[in-house]
Task: inverse folding
């Protein structure tokens, strides 16, 4: 298979060496977990347990309050210490704090699912919905919503994102190497549920071992493993679909508009595991790394484990930390504290040294056009940003600000260190607010 | 530690490329041809180059001070402007001329419009055009390369006027042992510099390639498929210097890919028209300046097709 890709994009340093060869290590017995009621895009959950309750592994602790929302379950067995508001990656929000008794007593409801081939699509999606599965690549979009396109949008292709184009992160890489069968099984379940003939797994070619392993695991299933050129943002939904299928999602549209559903490999592996064991989404793998971490690791952890604890598991900070990110360096979100829980969509904990955290001084735009030639959405970031700075959001909208996928390539490449994406975000917010009016 | 964590919006890493590095690369790319100019025309050429660079830097610092904006002489952009202007002067100009030219380029063309990135014309070229208009004699007096030669017309001048002087060979034009402005004669070293800039990702081949290509093809057709004349038109004038180093000026060229194509072909056509049918033997400066002026308009009408937009 030739190397597929998209137009534009950048080549940031991979910075994956520290962890790409490290097998996943388990850290499954935190003393306490803090389980946020909102770990996804959409409405927060309603807590269904109270202080003092005894809960078991896999037991529902937060119930989805609307369709676009996702249940949350206890990742340990033990006593609910409190239900209160505290810092989370999504702001000051309700969490259920559970003291782990270390017994890992599994809730009665957790039993292996029947063979997926005997289930209807509706039943499968219901199981996924109950298990609180969300996009584990970063955004945390509830998976059952993605799997429920309106009837007039028939789906014929599922693309799995194994690109892991964010620098530093290696958790998806390790997952594909260590549990390829779960990925394949999960994908087969989804293909069956949506009655879809085409399944693709897109992997960047800086992970030849993962391509090989997945190809082997996929043999005889009809699933195609696709090697992609290593380039950021290869894993962005629109770019990934284009690279795998050659189809462009219309501007302003969704993958389902062209019959495609995209999922992250970790999400799908969790679905595979769900059908094998009945266990909802209570564990995941993340990469804790960066120069600010003593011993970088790929860690399998229980959802709700405090980030601080994960860092301690990596022998702590390497000197004074300068910046702490959840996610990768291109799209991750900087946090004010390490005193918050790691969640379903925490793919990485990245710590910079104070030196690396220094903010670049912007200078005058030299109109080099590099932001234009790298934008994978074919926008002119320089123009949108300039209009945003003049508060001229109508003009910014004319330059298609809303098509920005917020990949950050423009800011990365700008030799004048212009805050391009930052200002484009403001423009997007204003344009959307105006549309709502 | 809590309070010391930096919080900022993504992306959290930046490429190592900076304005300074880009401008330094342009300077490096120009140096071989400039050095050859000194070899070719003597030490006076060096004096002129140094004068124009130093006065460009001084003008930059001064006008930034007056405008009360950060002084950025260390970003090499004034160096590039000064060097380019010097390379675009004949060696015989009076020594005050590069100073006036650099001051005009920086103060009027660049800083008055808002500084780096805001000039709508290439400052060095605009200054050169001003000098030619104000001091036509000084700006078009060509000194002989070799001490014993008497006349010293430029190659394109000879071709244009049909002077009764031997036309230089293509090898001379390539190496640069011919008459002309200080830094424009060595096509070979300028090409080398251009390739360096492409290799470093500072410029793309699009503008220089299409510009030179258009000039070559049109000249070839108009001269009735005369290879010799076509080669001289490509190599002996200011085309190589202009195409790689001045037409590619970021601020005054279009930023969209389609726009750059139109811009480059436009310059090619205008250059050939001036050279063949206009009053001057050389048309590179004016064609670049003309297309500089319409570049914003070109940008406006060549917005890229957004991903997933109608093809
Ligand atoms: S990359 Fe930066 S300097 Fe270059 S055109 Fe874009 S905003 Fe201007
Ligand atoms: S404008 Fe948006 S989509 Fe384009 S490079 Fe910048 S962040 Fe990425």
Result:
């Amino acid at each position: 298979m030739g190397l597929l890709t998209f137009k534009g994009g950048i080549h940031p340093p991979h910075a994956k060496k520290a962890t790409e060869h490290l097998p996943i290590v388990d850290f499954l017995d935190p003393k306490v977990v803090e389980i946020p009621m909102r770990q996804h895009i959409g409405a927060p959950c309603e807590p269904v347990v109270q202080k003092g309750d005894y809960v078991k592994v896999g037991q529902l602790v937060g119930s989805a309050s609307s369709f676009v929302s996702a249940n949350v379950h206890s990742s340990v067995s033990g006593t609910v210490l409190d239900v209160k508001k505290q810092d989370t990656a999504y702001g000051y929000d309700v969490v259920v704090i559970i003291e782990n008794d270390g017994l890992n007593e599994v809730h009665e409801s957790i039993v292996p699912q029947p063979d997926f081939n005997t289930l209807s699509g509706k039943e499968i999606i219901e199981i996924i919905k109950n298990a609180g599965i969300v996009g584990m690549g970063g955004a945390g979009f509830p998976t059952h919503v993605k799997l429920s396109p309106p009837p007039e949008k028939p789906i014929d292709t599922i693309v799995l994102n194994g690109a892991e184009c964010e620098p530093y992160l290696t958790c998806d890489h390790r997952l594909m190497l260590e549990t390829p069968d779960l990925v394949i099984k999960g994908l087969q379940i989804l293909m069956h549920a949506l009655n879809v003939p085409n399944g693709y797994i897109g992997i960047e070619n800086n992970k030849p071992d993962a391509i090989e392993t997945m190809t082997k695991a996929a043999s005889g299933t009809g699933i195609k493993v696709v090697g992609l050129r290593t380039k950021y943002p290869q894993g962005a939904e629109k770019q990934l679909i284009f690279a795998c299928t050659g189809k462009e999602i219309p501007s302003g549209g969704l993958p389902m508009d062209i019959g495609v559903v995209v999922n992250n490999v970790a999400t799908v592996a969790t679905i595979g595991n769900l059908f094998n064991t009945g266990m909802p989404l209570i564990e995941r793998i993340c990469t804790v790394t960066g120069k600010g971490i003593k011993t970088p690791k790929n860690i399998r952890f229980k959802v709700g484990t405090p980030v601080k604890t994960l860092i301690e598991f990596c022998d702590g900070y390497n000197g004074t930390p300068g910046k702490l990110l959840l996610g990768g360096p291109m799209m991750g979100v900087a946090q004010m504290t390490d005193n918050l829980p790691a969640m379903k969509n925490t793919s990485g904990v990245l710590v910079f040294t104070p030196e690396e955290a220094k903010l670049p001084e912007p200078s005058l735009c030299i109109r080099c056009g590099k932001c234009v030639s790298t934008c994978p959405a074919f926008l002119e970031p320089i123009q949108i940003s300039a209009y945003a700075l003049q508060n001229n959001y109508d003009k910014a909208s004319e330059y298609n600000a809303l098509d920005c996928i917020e990949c950050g390539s423009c800011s990365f490449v700008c030799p004048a260190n212009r805050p391009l994406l930052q200002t484009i975000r403001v423009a997007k917010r204003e344009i959307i607010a105006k549309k709502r009016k | 530690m809590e309070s010391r964590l930096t919080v900022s919006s993504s992306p959290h890493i930046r490429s190592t490329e900076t304005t300074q590095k880009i401008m330094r690369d342009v300077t490096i790319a120009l140096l071989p041809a400039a050095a050859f100019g000194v070899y070719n025309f003597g030490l006076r050429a060096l004096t002129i180059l140094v004068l124009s660079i130093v006065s460009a830097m001084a003008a930059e610092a001064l006008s930034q001070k007056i405008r009360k904006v950060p002084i950025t002489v260390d970003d090499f952009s004034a160096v590039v402007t000064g060097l380019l202007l010097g390379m675009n002067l004949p060696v015989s100009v009076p020594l005050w001329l590069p100073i006036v030219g650099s001051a005009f380029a920086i103060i009027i063309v660049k800083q008055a419009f808002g500084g780096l990135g805001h000039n709508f014309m290439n400052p060095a070229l605009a200054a050169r055009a001003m000098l030619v208009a104000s001091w036509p004699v000084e700006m078009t007096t060509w000194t002989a390369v070799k001490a014993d030669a008497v006349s010293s017309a430029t190659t394109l001048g000879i071709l244009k006027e049909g002077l009764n002087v031997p036309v230089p060979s293509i090898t001379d034009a390539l190496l640069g042992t011919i008459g002309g402005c200080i830094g424009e004669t060595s096509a070979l070293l300028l090409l080398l510099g251009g390739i360096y800039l492409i290799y470093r990702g500072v410029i793309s081949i699009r503008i220089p390639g299409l510009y030179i290509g258009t000039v070559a093809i049109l000249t070839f057709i108009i001269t009735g498929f005369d290879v010799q004349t076509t080669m001289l038109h490509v190599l002996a004038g200011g085309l190589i210097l202009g195409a790689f180093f001045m037409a590619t000026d970021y601020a005054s060229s279009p930023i969209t890919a389609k726009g750059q194509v139109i811009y480059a072909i436009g310059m090619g056509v205008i250059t050939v028209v001036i050279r063949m049918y206009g009053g001057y033997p050389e048309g590179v400066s004016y064609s670049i300046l003309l297309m500089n002026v319409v570049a914003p308009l070109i940008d406006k009408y060549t917005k890229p097709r957004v991903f997933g937009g109608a093809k």
The longest strand of chain A covers residues 78-88. Chain A touches chain B through 70 residues (CB under 8 Å). Residues 420-436 of chain A form the longest helix (17 residues). The radius of gyration of chain A is 21 Å.
